[in-house]
């Protein structure tokens, strides 16, 4: 079988083009063929992440702050003493502040003053997302209300819109606080910069690596549960269907996804 | 023209002063001397993409990674058979470009661009 001159040139041309486009575009789109199955399979996925917090069990620990410490260490949250500058991802709030519609003067003492763990509710109908002018905050397909710090312009509409006070604005340069106080920075997570808003991200960066949220992992009282609400066999669904639970300010229609067991 | 002598001398002085950086550099030969020389400390033999592509478009690649990690919730990328984390600090800097001053800043300073990556992301020195 021979090959004529024209045929040779055609093949040579195609080969050269193929090689060129390969070297130019290969890496730009290299991501498509990527994602090693093992790693992707290991990441935790859901249609609707939610959390259940057992207030009673939590309160039995009397001032335990393991979940808060774990979260704030993992996410490089500075601890400013001045409450005006405070950055909060997960923190304690009194019962009367957390469930103020449910509060009345004859509540048992232990309920009224003991702290309730609060964090971003990752609402199904998040008002913060609706008001964000740059789409810096958005809702992921798995229900997590996430922040893209690169897009945040620091307008604080979301801070005003959130009925739960879950968002904090960086008035100060966080890195400077870590330097000045000689606190170690978690190297696998960035800090924030002055002028952006931040909040709990349901440990999205841990879920993708197959780890459950840091607060749930740190809780030794077994008072926090995390799972997929769309999965009828999940632990959270099981608990919610067997025990009475309440949510914060459900009348606002934000559909919060943090459930509290009393 | 009134006072032409003064005006012409004045204009001459102004032009000379305004173009001072240009002819001074040309005279001393400084402009030819300096070329940015980014140093790669750990030589793994390859980057996540080819050198030419990275030189021109590393910012596009980083933006692509950023969007996929933050917006799409992905994390890993397959580079020539090796699975890597899409991370400025943990992949780009920790694995190869250890020294921000000698690598990133070398060209960024030359081109006078100041990306704000490191306002939040950590450089290896801070990680140490």
Which key features would you list for this structure?
heterodimer, A: alpha+beta, 2 domains, 12 helices, B: 128 residues, mainly alpha, two-stranded antiparallel sheet, 8 helices, 2 strands
Number of domain units of chain A: 2
Measured as a percent range, the helix fraction of chain A is 25-40%
Computed CA radius of gyration of chain B, to the nearest angstrom: 23 Å
Strand content of chain A: 5-15%
Q: Largest beta sheet of chain A, briefly?
A: 4 strands, mixed
Number of domains of chain B: 2
**Could you give the count of β-strands of chain B?**
2
**Average of per-residue pLDDT values of chain B:** 86
Q: How far apart lie the N and C ends of chain B?
A: 70 Å
Query: Distance between the terminal alpha carbons of chain A, to the nearest Å?
Result: 84 Å
> What is the average per-residue confidence, as pLDDT of chain A, rounded to a whole number?
87
CATH class of the largest domain in chain A, please?
Answer: Alpha Beta
Q: Given the helix and strand composition of chain A, which structural class is it?
A: alpha+beta
One letter per element, helices H and strands E, the order of chain B comes to: HHHHEEHHHH
- Main sheet: strands, sense, barrel of chain B: 2 strands, antiparallel
Oligomer: heterodimer
Uncertain segments of chain B of ≥5 residues (pLDDT<50)? none
Number of helices of chain A: 12
Shape of chain A: globular
What does this 3D model show about the protein?
The complex is a heterodimer of chains A (262) and B (128). Chain A is of the alpha+beta class and 262 residues long. Mean pLDDT of chain A is 87; it is low at 21-34. Chain A has two domains: 5-34; 46-261, Alpha-Beta Plaits (2-Layer Sandwich). Chain A has helices spanning 5-25, 37-42, 55-59, 66-74, 95-98, 109-113, 127-131, 157-161, 174-180, 204-207, 214-218, 235-242; strands at residues 49-54, 90-94, 115-119, 137-139, 145-147, 168-169, 197-198, 224-228, 245-246, 258-261. In chain A, strands 8-1-10-9 form a four-stranded mixed sheet. A two-stranded antiparallel sheet of chain A has the order 2-3. A two-stranded antiparallel sheet of chain A has the order 4-5. The model of chain B has no long low-confidence stretch (mean pLDDT 86). Chain B folds into two domains: 4-33, no CATH class; 51-127, no CATH class. Chain B has a two-stranded antiparallel ribbon. Chain B has helices spanning 4-18, 20-28, 30-33, 51-70, 88-96, 104-110, 117-120, 124-127, and strands spanning 76-79, 82-85. Chain B is mainly alpha-helical. Chain B is elongated and about 75 Å long. The A-B interface holds A 23-24, 26-28, 30-31, 33-36, 39-40, 43, 138, 140, 142, 146, 148-150, 175, 185, 187-188, 190-193, 204-205, 208-209 and B 48-50, 53, 57, 60-61, 64, 66, 68, 70-71, 73-79, 83, 89-90, 116, 119-122, 126-127.
């Amino acid at each position: 079988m021979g090959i004529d001159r024209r045929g040779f040139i055609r093949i040579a041309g195609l080969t050269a083009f193929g090689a060129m486009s390969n070297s130019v575009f290969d890496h730009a789109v290299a991501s498509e063929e990527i994602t090693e199955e093992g790693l992707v399979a290991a990441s935790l996925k859901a249609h609707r992440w939610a959390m259940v917090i057992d207030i009673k069990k939590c309160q039995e620990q009397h001032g335990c702050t393991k979940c808060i410490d774990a979260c704030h260490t993992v996410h490089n949250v500075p601890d400013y003493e001045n409450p005006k500058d405070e950055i909060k991802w997960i923190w304690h709030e009194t019962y009367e502040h957390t469930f103020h519609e449910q509060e009345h003067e004859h509540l048992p003492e232990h309920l009224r003053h003991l702290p309730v763990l609060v964090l971003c509710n990752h609402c199904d109908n998040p008002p913060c997302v609706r008001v964000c002018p740059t789409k810096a905050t958005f809702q992921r397909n798995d229900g997590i209300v996430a922040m893209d710090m690169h897009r945040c312009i620091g307008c604080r509409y979301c801070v005003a819109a959130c009925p739960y006070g879950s968002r904090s604005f960086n008035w100060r340069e966080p890195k400077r606080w870590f330097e000045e106080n000689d606190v170690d920075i978690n190297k696998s997570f960035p800090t924030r910069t002055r002028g952006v808003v931040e909040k709990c991200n349901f440990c999205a960066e841990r879920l993708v690596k197959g780890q459950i949220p840091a607060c749930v992992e740190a809780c030794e009282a077994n008072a926090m549960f995390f799972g997929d609400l769309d999965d009828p066999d999940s632990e959270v669904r099981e608990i919610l269907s067997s025990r009475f639970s309440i949510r914060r300010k459900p009348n606002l229609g934000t559909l919060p996804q943090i459930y509290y067991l009393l | 023209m009134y006072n032409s002598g003064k005006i012409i001398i004045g204009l001459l002085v102004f032009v000379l002063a305004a173009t001072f950086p240009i002819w001074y550099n040309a005279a001393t030969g400084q402009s030819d001397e300096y070329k940015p020389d980014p140093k790669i400390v750990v030589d793994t033999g390859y980057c996540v993409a080819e050198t030419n592509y990275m030189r021109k478009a590393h910012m596009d690649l980083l933006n692509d990674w950023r969007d996929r990690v933050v917006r799409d919730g992905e994390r890993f990328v397959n580079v020539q058979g090796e699975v890597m984390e899409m991370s400025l600090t943990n992949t780009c800097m920790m694995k190869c470009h250890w020294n921000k001053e000698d690598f990133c800043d070398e060209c960024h300073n030359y081109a006078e661009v100041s990306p704000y990556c490191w306002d939040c992301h950590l450089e290896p020195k801070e990680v140490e």
